Amino acid sequence: MTKATLNIAARFVVLVLVQVLIFNHINFMGYINPYIYILFIILFPANNNRTLFVFLAFLLGFFVDVFSDSGGVHAAASVTLAYVRPVFLKFSFGTVYDYQSIKFNQTDFSSKLTYFSALVIIHHFIMYSLEIFNISKILLILQKTLFSGIFTIILCLIITILFSQKRK
């Protein structure tokens, strides 16, 4: 196995464990639950096999569902996120994505913030829509999506800044 493959596998395992052991137990004011496991999907290399990526996103969501007893909402949201990610890569990074040369630690902050925000909000909206599954509770869905989304975006940005590898 290459170093990149081991890095991806380690990120997968660590994010699932941190999510189910720490972040699943955080619940501020009933609306704020951080879901940092989606960092795996957000930071997955853009030039890899897309079918493998969608399958890994399913496994990621499935493991979080198993440990959270959430009935498949994380798996559905993760697969959807993995499927629509190329659209948001192109929207956020433009020609850098077209040439498959994105290095997240070398992109400007505004592009990174746009990319993270779009994916987190989509993930949370799908997840909470499936979890609540009642159109009359749309305000609750939007409230949970907004507040958890903001908290997740902030945590994901902090984590990527703290753990980014500085290259000269």
Query: Order of SSEs, N→C?
Result: HHHHHHH
The number of domains: 1
Let me know the average pLDDT.
87
Q: If classified by CATH, what would the architecture be?
A: Orthogonal Bundle
Describe this structure as you would to a colleague.
It is a single chain. The protein is mainly alpha-helical. It has one domain: Arp2/3 complex 21 kDa subunit ARPC3. 70% of the residues lie in helices and 0% in strands. The model has no long low-confidence stretch (mean pLDDT 87).
What's the short story on this structure?
By secondary structure, the chain is mainly α.
Characteristics:
7 helices; mainly alpha; membrane; transmembrane helix; 70% helix; globular; transmembrane; 168 residues; Rod shape-determining protein MreD
Ordered list of secondary-structure elements with their pairings:
Blueprint (H helix, E strand, L loop, with lengths): L2 H19 L17 H5 L6 H19 L4 H21 L1 H4 L10 H24 L5 H26 L5
Helix pairs in contact: 1-3, 3-4, 4-6, 6-7
